[in-house]
Task: structure prediction
Amino acid sequence: MRVTNSMMIGQLMKNLNKNLKRMENHQYQLATGKRISRPSQDPVGITRSLQARTELSKIEQYKRNVEDAKAWLVQAETALDEMNSLIQRAYELTVDATNDSKAPEDRQAVAEEIDQLMKQLLETANTSYAGRSVFGGYNTGDKPFEVREDAGQMFLWYNGEKIANLSDPDSQPVVNIAVEKIEYEIGAGNRMDISTPGPEVLGIGNDNLYAVFYGLFQALSDGTDADRIGQYIGKLQDQQQEILSHLAEVGGKTNRLDLIKTRLDADELNYTGIKSHVEDVDHEKVIMEFMMAEIVYLSSLSVGARIIQPTLVDFIR
Result:
């Protein structure tokens, strides 16, 4: 086989381009920190990387959901804790008002403070988070709880439904309110109910917390019957136990969210490691390979200078 000068030069250029391409590949890895620039370089590795990226995207969304759910529960816990403080203050005032040494005007002064506690209770029951009432279910527009008159009697309303007759405790409305659950997806197929329905928190009918405050206010305003006032001591204690029960439930859900967030952080670290193992380069190794490729390229240039020998045309010139 006859080897011509053009054949040698053609092979030289092919090898030079191959060496230059190798240098360019190492340079790209050093510049970007990524081992793979296109799927054809490592089809199996890029599949694992894409799977890891998908899982990381899901984990990030779950973590956002957990943080939002936790913020909701913290708001609910704050409101419940305030209700407990209001009950505690009302209890202290009621015990003091049952003292036979109290004059009617003293009990009237206590009634005025109970009236202020009652107003604050209603405000607390309408606590909202991100524009949505914490105790209002799906209600996002209006305050769920309100006190207004109907047919000459005062009622406590919840989302447009009567839940307690304040004027006539012996005639309570029939309540049929659907439970509206607010759920967050905090994992694959794992949903958590963070709702605290208002009727369950405050109660319904004679067992309604606001109705107890209202009845206590009326008894204190009359100012003469200590036994009638004393009946509300036990009612306030029962209401406090109910609020403490809801506080414990909210606290348990918050603790569970903390555990879930810890697990999601561990999963995120694991999938980040998988993605890094597939995509990221070992800089020390790549630097060494780049220097070796550079030496090979420079050597090929030096050898090429010897291959491209002068021809008869060069002398004719």
